[in-house]
Amino acid sequence: MKTIKKWLYLALFLVLIYYIFIANIDITLIVLASLYVAFRVYKIYARKRLIKTARSKETFSKSELGLFIALVAKVAKADRRVDELEAELIGIMFDDISKVFPQKERVRAILKEIFNEEKEKHDDTKEIAEALNKLLGYGRFKRKQYMEFLLQLAFVGNGVNADEERVLHIIADALNITTSEYDTMVSRFETMFQNQQQSMSLEEAYEILGVKQEDDMNSIKKIYRKQVRQYHPDLIASQNKDAAYIEESTAKMQELNQAYDIIKAER
Fold first, then answer.
1. Cα–Cα dist 169/151, whole Å
2. Which of 38, 101, 126, 138 is a Cys-bridge partner for 107, taking CB atoms 3.0 to 4.6 Å apart?
3. 3-state secondary structure of 106
4. Sign of CA dihedral 134, 69, 194, 249
């Protein structure tokens, strides 16, 4: 009986679709035109919102992206230093964010200014994370995604130290990330980190970076940076991707970083 009812509902739905969009062409054209107008209005609204956000450092620092960059600064400088790969990834993140704004260079300069200011402050992490939490509303996806990015930044080098862990816990609590959710995220990153700690030969390191033993260190560094740029997780593009996207990128970053460190040590 349930199966028959399901097919009856489906048949009714198809009849309605036929009547509205095929038999009545006028309604079809009106619907399509309305969707187009709505899309154009949304694009205009989104562009104006971006322009308003980038009006000054003050307005940007209070926006969702500005607050997130401030938290990136807290995590990156938690151990009192920003290592080479962290700096590279942060610079690429600036590029990813600024490219969606009309004034790219201006926005990039603002992002850098926010980062440089916030990395020197160590007592406002909770307040910044709470401000971001308020802007995010009730959705869970973005909270987890931002937390994944911060964990990626912490793990991508040589794992998470006590200072970084303390800052990450403060941020997770303020973003209403449950203990279970946070532990699950950390566990996945720790598993990847442990897998990457396997011994890598010098020959494998050259092969992973796609360089030759006769290449000079400057050339190797350029290729390393190019590889990092290619495999990094794009903060903006990742809006429609799941956690596996960031995890896979982190694993690749760790592999590239390990290969680069082995070659540097040998030189």
1. 11
2. 101
3. helix
4. positive
Helices (H) and strands (E) in the chain, counts: 13, 0
Task: Quote the CA–CA distance of 160 and 6 in Å, as a whole number.
Answer: 53
Yes or no: say if 232 and 92 are a contact pair by the CB < 8 Å rule: yes
Phi/psi class of residue 60: alpha, beta or left (left: φ > 0; alpha: ψ in -120 to 50)?
A: alpha
pLDDT, position 38: 58
Q: How far is CA 29 from CA 15, 17, 211, in A?
A: 18, 14, 57
Task: Determine phi and psi for 231, rounding to 5 degrees.
Answer: -100, 0
108 within 8 A of 98, measured Cβ to Cβ: yes
What's the CA gap between 217 and 19, in Å, rounded?
69
Q: How far apart are CA 31 and CA 14, in angstroms?
A: 17
**CA separation, residue 238 to residues 19, 41, 139 (Å):** 39, 24, 16
Please state the domain extents for the chain. 2-50, 54-266
Contact 53, 68 (CB under 8 A): no
Q: How far apart are alpha carbons 43 and 60 in whole angstroms? A: 20
pLDDT at 2 over 50: no
